[in-house]
Each structure stands twice: as structure tokens, then as C-alpha cells.
């Protein structure tokens, strides 16, 4: 059972998500929070698998709450998915850097929300390639100057190659085709790279790809 915490200051939004999620045989709502402070407290108490976190909330906003959650090593298995009204909300990019596993617009189709919850638990790509590439392009424009390749010293050449392809927004299937390997092999390389770098998920791998200089803005081939 995938346990989800809903963090949104609008009770109607929470009620809609709860009805959808609780109707699934493999997903259940573990709790609800109306502000960021409550969300952080409930994550510590309930240890959900996924937090659906609204960006704009009172007391402590979703961005600060995400930092508080992802900054604790003992909560490393908790995945945070940001909820926003606008697909490219400026706060989303900082949220990704802070450890959020991705984001969804609030009016997303129910099937997409369910797919996202299931995908993020397994560390798979959360966003569609098109949305991912737009996100990466915007993130790249805002990102700081590359720190250099030193943090990637523990990676093999193939792992660097795979990380670069993740960094330009390719899915496991697209990476497999590019490298002429099986999708399972591509997924294995991605997983090993995340483990070596201590990345929570693919979203953080994208951030590291840019911040290390492995991928540069404009490399969206």
C-alpha cells in the first residue's frame, strides 16, 4: 500500500484528492495537512511514502516544508511532489533543487495523478518528456555556474553518459535506444548512478548534471 500525505490549505482540494486516492486498491491517504508546519510534523509522525505538497500555504510554504523534509536523512524515503496552479511556477525549480521529486499541476487528469504517485515511489520518471525538457530548459537558465566535474569522480564513463542523457530529459526507453541497450540495463545504470551520488531520484540527478557541468544549458538534443 502506497501511503500518501496531502498538504494543501484548501480543504476542497484535499477532499478531491483523497476521494480519488482512497478509491485505489494500492494507494491510501495517511493524513492531511493544511499548512507547511503541519505537513512537516505529520511527515515525521506518519512517515508516508509520498507527500503531495502545495507550493503556497500559510505559516510555512511548500518550498520551506520540502526543504525541512528532504534535509533530514531519516526521511530520505519520503518523496515530495509539488502541486502548483501553473505548470512552470518559478518556485518549482528551487523545489526540485531542494529535493522534490517533481511537480504536477492541480488540474492534471486523475489518471496522470495516480500514475505519478506510483511512479515516484519506484524512482521512475515523474514527468512526460516534453514537460521535463521545458522544466530543464527553465532550470538551466536559472542555475548557478557549474562547479566542475569533481563530484562525479566515482562514476564510470557509461554512468556519466547515462547521467548526461537523464540531464537532457530522456526517459529510460529513450536512453536505451540511444545507447543500444535494453531498457532494464538503462534503468540499472540510472539507479547505480543515483546511489553513487546520493540522489533521491531522477529530478535530483538532473540538478546534479547541470551543477557539475556535465550538461550545459542548451544541450536539449
From TrEMBL:
HTH luxR-type domain: residues covered: 148-213
Positions of post-translational 4-aspartylphosphate modification: 54
UniProt cross-references to SUPFAM superfamilies, sorted A to Z: C-terminal effector domain of the bipartite response regulators (SSF46894), CheY-like (SSF52172)
Domain annotation Response regulatory: ranges: 3-121
Q: Which InterPro entries match?
A: CheY-like_superfamily, NreC/VraR/RcsB-like_REC, Sig_transdc_resp-reg_C-effctor, Sig_transdc_resp-reg_receiver, Tscrpt_reg_LuxR_C, WalR-like
Stored Pfam families: GerE (PF00196), Response_reg (PF00072)
Q: Which UniProt keywords apply?
A: DNA-binding, Phosphoprotein, Transcription, Transcription regulation
PROSITE patterns documented for this protein: HTH_LUXR_2 (PS50043), RESPONSE_REGULATORY (PS50110)
**Which PANTHER family does the protein's record reference?**
TRANSCRIPTIONAL REGULATORY PROTEIN NARL-RELATED, TWO-COMPONENT RESPONSE REGULATOR
Q: What is this protein called?
A: Response regulator
Q: Which organism is it from?
A: Streptomyces longisporoflavus
**Taxonomic lineage of the native organism:** Bacteria, Bacillati, Actinomycetota, Actinomycetes, Kitasatosporales
